[in-house]
């Protein structure tokens, strides 16, 4: 997986072979994320230390941060690393093609908190967090149960399902639709676009444009008439500084959809894969010796859906020894290796602890750009509900055949593209006594229920009248 001792395209010449600063870049392509990754990051850490020189698809040079302490340092507030991709020297020098598949993940966007810092970042993040904080946890869980039972009902009689396409992919998106305020039909258009974008393939740019168009229509409608949803809060809620523009709201909504639907789908899929393939783990769960939250956490640490995040950019030259073994030039692209850093033995005081007991991981990021606490809460609710409902309704789980597990994704997302299982149906949801506010889980009327309390619209109205 290494190349000859050439300098990365467009980068500074490498020192002579044998020099302590010498580093042949490691090839990190989308195909590298498809197989068994156990030991991969440790191999790179042994060979290169906490920061690995890499070459991405298209010959683009970058640095992969897989050390626990190094990642914390790069993400530390006031550290000399910017999240503004306009600092990237390769892009400013015109050495990155407009058609590069990963460009939509890095190119600066107004209103996207990923690329901001300081006061500008706080202005948007605080408003987004205050909106997400108002989402009712009980209402969200009940709605997620309702969606889960409807999806399971479509495959229950056959006793077979592709956990990814039939369940894990649509479920988080449908919950996100209620949070944002999008209609169900619109979500059916958004789902394939989100994953085309995350896969970083040839259609990533068109998917990006499609998402922007759909979200733009929602922003226009909510600007004219707010409802009980997140987009309305971003437009009309209390903000520190200038009110958000339509473009800022659209991009914040895009970020919420991408992180919420994409990341949570991967989390659900990977948890189910661990349970179906790891019979010992499933047995521990059935015996009451492992809870779903414990298995969810272990999956985040050992097999997270989001492996790497683009990027950070040094505002000055970083000499060898400050962050890792090699000098890193100002303006270089740094990739946050969330999975690699979570697997670093330095994490959690130098040891990982038991398989299920260690709660430490970087799956939600680190530093000022870590996923907001309210968003983490919602992701946990959606994932736990999805796994719980599937295990309750679908018994005697097993793989359909030897080709039932298929991996997809990119250097960013390591996600199952297919997980085909067979099961014995435990019966319809309506046969249980579970109800939601007096409404059976199968009742289609729940599709229009808001996940925000009436007090949200009251607060928006009061703020607008000032």
Detailed description of the structure:
This protein is α+β, with helices and mostly antiparallel strands. 46% of the residues are buried. The model is unreliable at 1-20, 350-354 and 430-442 (pLDDT under 50). 46% of the residues lie in helices and 12% in strands. It folds into 2 domains: 1-108 and 307-362, 2-Layer Sandwich (Uridine Diphospho-n-acetylenolpyruvylglucosamine Reductase, domain 2); 119-262 and 377-466, Cytochrome p450, CATH 1.10.630.10. It has 18 helices and 12 strands. Helix 8 crosses helix 9 (184-199). The strands form 3 sheets. A 6-stranded mixed sheet has the order 1-2-3-7-6-4. Strands 5, 8, 9 and 10 form a 4-stranded antiparallel sheet that branches.
In short:
With 466 residues, this protein is an alpha+beta fold. Helix content is 46%, strand content 12%.
Throw out a few tags for this protein.
single chain, 466 residues, alpha+beta, Uridine Diphospho-n-acetylenolpyruvylglucosamine Reductase, domain 2, Cytochrome p450, 2 domains, 6-stranded mixed sheet, 4-stranded antiparallel sheet, 12 strands, 46% helix, globular, disordered N terminus
């Amino acid at each position: 997986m290494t190349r000859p001792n050439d300098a990365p395209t467009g980068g500074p010449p490498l020192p002579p072979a044998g020099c302590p600063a010498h580093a042949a870049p490691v090839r990190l392509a989308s195909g590298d994320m498809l197989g068994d990754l156990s030991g991969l990051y440790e191999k790179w850490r042994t060979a290169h230390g906490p920061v690995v020189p890499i070459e991405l698809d298209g010959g683009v040079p970058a640095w992969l941060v897989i050390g626990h302490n190094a990642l914390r340092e790069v993400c530390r507030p006031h550290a000399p690393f910017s999240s503004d991709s306009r600092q990237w020297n390769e892009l400013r020098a015109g050495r990155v093609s407009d058609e590069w598949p990963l460009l939509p993940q890095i190119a600066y966007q107004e209103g996207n908190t990923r690329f901001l810092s300081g006061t500008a970042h706080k202005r948007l993040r605080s408003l987004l967090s205050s909106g997400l904080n108002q989402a009712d946890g009980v209402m969200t869980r009940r709605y997620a149960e309702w969606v889960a039972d409807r999806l399971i009902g479509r495959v229950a009689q056959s006793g077979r399902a592709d956990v990814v396409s039939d369940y894990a992919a649509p479920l988080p998106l449908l919950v996100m639709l209620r949070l944002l305020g999008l209609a169900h039909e619109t979500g059916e258009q958004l789902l394939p676009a989100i994953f085309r974008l995350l896969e970083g393939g040839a259609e990533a740019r068109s998917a990006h444009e499609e998402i922007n168009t759909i979200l733009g229509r929602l922003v226009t409608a909510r600007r004219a008439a707010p409802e009980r949803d997140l987009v309305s809060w971003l437009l009309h809620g209390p903000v520190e500084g200038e009110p958000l523009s339509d473009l800022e709201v659209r991009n914040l909504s895009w970020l919420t959809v991408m992180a919420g639907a994409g990341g949570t789908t991967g989390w659900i899929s990977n948890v189910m894969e661990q349970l179906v393939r790891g019979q010992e783990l499933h047995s521990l769960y059935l015996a009451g010796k492992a809870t779903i939250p414990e298995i969810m956490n272990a999956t985040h640490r050992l097999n997270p859906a989001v492996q790497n995040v683009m990027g950070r950019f040094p505002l000055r030259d970083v000499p060898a020894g400050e962050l890792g073994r090699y000098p890193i030039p100002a303006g270089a692209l740094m990739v946050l290796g969330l999975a690699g850093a979570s697997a670093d033995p330095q994490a959690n005081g130098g040891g990982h602890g038991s398989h299920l007991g260690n709660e430490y991981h970087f799956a939600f990021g680190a530093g000022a750009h870590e996923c907001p606490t309210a968003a983490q809460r919602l992701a946990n609710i959606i994932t736990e509900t999805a796994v719980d409902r599937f295990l309750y309704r679908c018994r005697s789980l097993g793989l359909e055949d030897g080709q039932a597990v298929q991996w997809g994704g990119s250097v960013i997302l390591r996600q199952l593209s297919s997980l085909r299982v067979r099961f014995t149906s435990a019966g319809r949801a309506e046969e249980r006594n579970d109800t939601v506010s007096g409404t059976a889980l199968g009742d289609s009327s729940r599709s229009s229920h808001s996940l925000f309390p009436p007090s949200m619209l009251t607060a928006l109205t009061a703020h607008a009248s000032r």
